[in-house]
Amino acid sequence: MVGFEYPTQPHIRRHGPGGYKDYESFRDWLRDEFTFRCVYCLHREQWYGRGVTFHIDHSTPVMDDPQGECEYSNLAYACATCNEAKKAILNVPNPCLVAFHDCLRIMADGHVEALNANGKKLEQALGLNRPSNLRYRSRWMRSLEALRTKEPDLYREFMGFPEGLPDLRKKHVPSNTKPEGVENCYFALRERHELPDPDPHVILRKGEKNLSGRAFFP
Ligand SMILES: [Zn+2]
Fold it and tell me: Is the pLDDT at 203 greater than 60, yes or no?
């Protein structure tokens, strides 16, 4: 389904910033890390427009592990709706440990089907089949399919990258265990004309892997 394929592998982190005293400082790293979209429901920054509706998600809630508040490995990028739903719920599957493609499938009508126990936990904790979420997802799926076939340029805008890509090479960060990652941040890829192109003529079929390994943009 266009725009709604979960990753077939657990996410492998490309960046390793550390030492910030507040977790908001990780925002641009996480945006780039998780390709500017919510790890849970796959909604993209480009679909919201103004960039303020995304939260920093703590895989293990801060209440349960205060040490993890500013640990990059405990942080993910999520839309406000998913982050609010998840809040203090424990043991929600971590996208860096579990391939969500094995857990969840999005059906043609927008419903989310849980494929295993992890999927069930995700579906329930995040309220993925709540009527409001279902309506919103279904509307996006129909819109993207219409754009893909009739308005390819607009389709590229919605499926592409935000204008304001962060240049992670210029970030001041106290420490970084993966300094090489900044050379492949999406800002740098754009400079080198290597950004993945959301080609409206290419759709990933079920079970097909994204060969770039960098982005999930079909
Ligand atoms: Zn979400």
Answer: no
